[in-house]
Design brief:
By secondary structure, the protein is an alpha+beta fold. The chain contains six helices and four strands. The chain has a single domain, classed as 2-Layer Sandwich (Beta Polymerase, domain 2), CATH 3.30.460.10. A four-stranded mixed β-sheet has the order 3-2-1-4. Pfam families: NTP_transf_2.
Length: about 120
Amino acid sequence: MSLLRASFYRQMLMIALVLNSRDAIAALCQRYGVSSLEVFGSATTGAFREGESDIDFIVEFEDSSPGLANRYLDLAESLECLLEHRVDLLVEPTLANPYLRHTVNASREQVCGHRRRQAAA
């Protein structure tokens, strides 16, 4: 399957909760200085189970100025309140493990912003 087709397929599978909340999520991204927010895992693969699954995100912040830890925690809490689900929030630079990176890259889908760099497979 081509990369474009795979991305389109994942977007179609992205849970309605995330799709329907894109504007509110974009506002949170702007509020907390997020340059890129992507969803991955069960929310994009069709394996999401209401009441069981959490929603996995990868975040990239515009800068690493003082207060980054607070922005990270506030964003995670705000996403959980908005989506009314548990949220796992990974920071892009922490994806150093090649196996984890490969798994994440296979299902990641942009929610807001743009990635500054292409992640290695």
